[in-house]
Amino acid sequence: MHCVKDKNNYTFNSFDILVEAKIGAKRKLIDYRENLPQPYNTEKALGNVWEFTNVRYRMDEYENQPTQKPRYRTNII
Predict the structure, then answer these.
(1) What single-letter DSSP state applies at residue 34?
(2) Nearest to 21 by CA among 39, 38, 1
(3) Domain regions of the chain by residue span
Protein backbone atom coordinates (compact mmCIF):
# COMPACT_ATOMS: atom_id res chain seq x y z
CA MET A 1 0.00 0.00 0.00
CA HIS A 2 1.26 3.47 -0.77
CA CYS A 3 -0.32 6.90 -0.51
CA VAL A 4 0.31 9.93 -2.67
CA LYS A 5 -0.87 13.53 -2.73
CA ASP A 6 -1.44 13.58 -6.49
CA LYS A 7 -2.60 10.28 -8.02
CA ASN A 8 -1.55 11.40 -11.51
CA ASN A 9 1.94 12.61 -10.59
CA TYR A 10 4.02 10.32 -8.35
CA THR A 11 7.19 8.23 -8.43
CA PHE A 12 7.20 4.59 -7.36
CA ASN A 13 10.72 3.21 -6.94
CA SER A 14 10.16 -0.52 -7.39
CA PHE A 15 13.90 -1.19 -7.45
CA ASP A 16 14.07 -0.25 -3.75
CA ILE A 17 11.79 -3.13 -2.72
CA LEU A 18 13.20 -5.99 -4.78
CA VAL A 19 13.51 -9.39 -3.11
CA GLU A 20 15.14 -12.63 -4.20
CA ALA A 21 13.15 -14.58 -6.79
CA LYS A 22 13.23 -18.24 -5.75
CA ILE A 23 12.95 -19.67 -9.25
CA GLY A 24 15.50 -17.41 -10.86
CA ALA A 25 18.05 -17.14 -8.09
CA LYS A 26 18.10 -20.63 -6.59
CA ARG A 27 17.14 -22.99 -9.39
CA LYS A 28 18.90 -21.10 -12.22
CA LEU A 29 16.27 -22.02 -14.80
CA ILE A 30 16.24 -20.76 -18.37
CA ASP A 31 13.20 -18.92 -19.73
CA TYR A 32 12.40 -20.26 -23.21
CA ARG A 33 9.28 -18.13 -23.77
CA GLU A 34 11.17 -15.47 -25.73
CA ASN A 35 12.91 -15.90 -29.09
CA LEU A 36 16.30 -15.69 -27.36
CA PRO A 37 16.37 -17.96 -24.26
CA GLN A 38 17.71 -16.23 -21.16
CA PRO A 39 17.93 -16.91 -17.41
CA TYR A 40 15.02 -15.93 -15.17
CA ASN A 41 15.43 -12.75 -13.12
CA THR A 42 17.17 -13.22 -9.78
CA GLU A 43 15.09 -10.46 -8.16
CA LYS A 44 11.42 -9.50 -8.24
CA ALA A 45 9.16 -6.80 -6.80
CA LEU A 46 7.19 -7.73 -3.71
CA GLY A 47 3.70 -9.04 -4.21
CA ASN A 48 1.10 -9.36 -1.52
CA VAL A 49 2.78 -9.40 1.90
CA TRP A 50 -0.45 -10.01 3.83
CA GLU A 51 -1.23 -13.59 4.66
CA PHE A 52 -4.63 -14.46 6.12
CA THR A 53 -5.85 -17.96 6.82
CA ASN A 54 -9.54 -18.76 6.50
CA VAL A 55 -11.59 -19.61 9.57
CA ARG A 56 -13.14 -23.05 9.24
CA TYR A 57 -16.53 -23.97 10.65
CA ARG A 58 -15.05 -26.08 13.46
CA MET A 59 -12.87 -23.27 14.82
CA ASP A 60 -13.90 -21.35 17.94
CA GLU A 61 -13.81 -18.07 16.03
CA TYR A 62 -16.37 -19.20 13.44
CA GLU A 63 -19.42 -16.98 12.94
CA ASN A 64 -22.01 -17.01 10.19
CA GLN A 65 -20.32 -14.38 7.98
CA PRO A 66 -19.36 -14.44 4.26
CA THR A 67 -15.61 -13.98 4.93
CA GLN A 68 -13.72 -14.73 8.10
CA LYS A 69 -10.18 -14.24 9.30
CA PRO A 70 -8.63 -15.31 12.61
CA ARG A 71 -8.83 -12.68 15.36
CA TYR A 72 -5.10 -12.65 15.98
CA ARG A 73 -4.63 -11.53 12.35
CA THR A 74 -7.11 -8.67 12.63
CA ASN A 75 -5.12 -7.19 15.52
CA ILE A 76 -2.34 -6.42 13.03
CA ILE A 77 -4.68 -4.16 11.10
Answers:
(1) S
(2) 39
(3) 16-46, 49-77
Enter the pTM of the model. Answer: 0.42
- H or E segment and range at residue 32: none
CA distances from 72 to 47, 53, 77 (A): 22, 11, 10
Task: Report the alpha-carbon distance of residue 14 to residue 18 in Å, rounded.
Answer: 7
Task: Indicate the Cα dihedral angle 47, 48, 51, 57, nearest 10°.
Answer: -120
Q: For residues 23-27, give the mean pLDDT.
A: 75
- Of the CA atoms within 13 Å of residue 50, those in its CB half-sphere come to 9
